[in-house]
Amino acid sequence: MNIELDPETEARLVEILAREKTTRDELIKRLVQECWLSLQPRQTIVERLGGHPEHLLENAPPD
Q1: Are the beta carbons of 14 and 23 closer than 8 angstroms?
Q2: Residue ranges of the alpha helices (H) in 1-63?
Q3: Is the pTM here over 0.70, yes or no?
C-alpha cells in the first residue's frame, strides 16, 4: 500500500512512530483495528459478563 502524505502529516507520523517504538505497518494495523472496533455495536453489561446466569432464569416467567 502506497500513500502520499503532506509534509506536516509525515512529520506527525514520524513522531508517533518514534514515541510508540513501532513500525508503520504495525501502527496502521492498530489504527484500523481501533477504528473497526469503534464501529461495532456495543455489548451490554450482561453480554460482557457472559450472559444471564441460568439459575436466575429457571423460575422466570416465559416473557
Answers
A1: no
A2: 7-20, 24-39, 45-48, 54-57
A3: no
